[in-house]
Amino acid sequence: MSLVTEVVVPRYGIAWYPWAVQYFFLIALSYSTLWLAAPGLILGKQAWMTTARIALLACVSTTLVAPVALLADLHQPLRFWHFYAHPTPWSWMSLGSFLLPIYLGAVVLLAWLAWRPALKARSHQNDGWFSRVAGWLAWGEWQAPRAVLALVGAGALVASLGIMLYTGFEVAIVKGRPLWNTNWLPPMFVATGVIGGCGLILVLNRITSIRHPDTNRQMLAILVGACVVTGFIALTWFLDGVNAVSGSVAAALDSVSQSAAWRSTAIEGGIAGGLLATLAFVMRRSPARRKAMGWILGLLALHVAWMFRWVVLMNVQTVARNSAGFHDYHVAFGSYGLLGIIGIFGLWLTAVMLIDLFVPWREASSDPQAEPVATAPEATSISASFEGAPSHG
């Protein structure tokens, strides 16, 4: 006599949708571009000022848009107030709900202090609504000492470290998924975030028509270093699992060892990262190649940063938790899929264009009392670079 016991295991849908990928992607670009702006904007290194201006534009635009993706990922955005009505200090997500507004406020205040001299200068011009808006944004003729900008910048950097920690560890503490439950994940988020930040600055250097050669050179140098660090973390992470040093990493590798899709993803990621590092190393030695191809390398860097987060946050959820095998996931067309991704990109692009239209960010200075610097003749506005219109920024 044989007894057969049937076990029915429910299939749970994914908890995090592409909104989460967009948030983790944008917030990583935000704090990494803030770090890249620091040498010129906060420390006052003039050789870094052009890069700092572009980095600050990237930082402000991504910082403004990232919380929108986060609210959308809550599925019921209006329930965000629950984080503040019922705080749980032992939860990284709860801590992040308090850190994020502080960080956003510090970034906006830093940008306002850096852009204010140029806004005041614009307000004195007879430029119609642009002058009026600049006057409103400048908020008077008073002067702010250099120490205030440095202090606010230091506060923003400290807050960015909190954002970096919470976004990494709120995923790494999930013990139900071995592919997440590892201390290697937070530093990998940071390293790939720096790669994406460099890529975004390279792209903005091109599409804003600034095309400063020093910016390309500086970003490619940092990009090479970030790729080396990323490769070292990835290799150590893999060896950790192969040698069963960490139980969670070994379990993670075992859960995907029989998957051809995961093997192809690993190979594609290795090739993309290796190609990025090689091209960045070669191009940084050639001014002509940097000028012509820097923005293309920037797009590749953004692809690497985005795809790492997609694999970690979306592909990992297809690994069955209560049974063997994998669950299929296809990107939907609606707001929880493709349209949401396109919409967030469109919102970011809108933020960049509005800043470019109303804020003379190209004249930003590390000294709030300094006179705005002259804009390079070739540095036209973003809209003008496509339409041929005169620059308002």
UniProtKB/TrEMBL annotation:
Q: How does it sit in the membrane?
A: Multi-pass membrane protein
Q: Name one Pfam family in it.
A: NrfD
Question: Which compartments is it annotated to reside in?
Answer: Cell membrane
Entry keyword Cell membrane: yes
Query: InterPro entries per the record?
Result: Electron_transfer_protein (IPR052049), NrfD-like (IPR005614)
Which terms in the GO cellular component ontology are assigned? plasma membrane
TM segment ranges? 20-42, 54-72, 92-115, 147-169, 189-207, 219-239, 259-282, 294-313, 333-359
Keywords for this protein: Cell membrane, Membrane, Transmembrane, Transmembrane helix
Q: Where is this region: Disordered?
A: 369-393
PANTHER family in the record? PROTEIN NRFD
What the record says about family reads: Belongs to the NrfD family.
Q: Please state what the protein is called.
A: Tetrathionate reductase
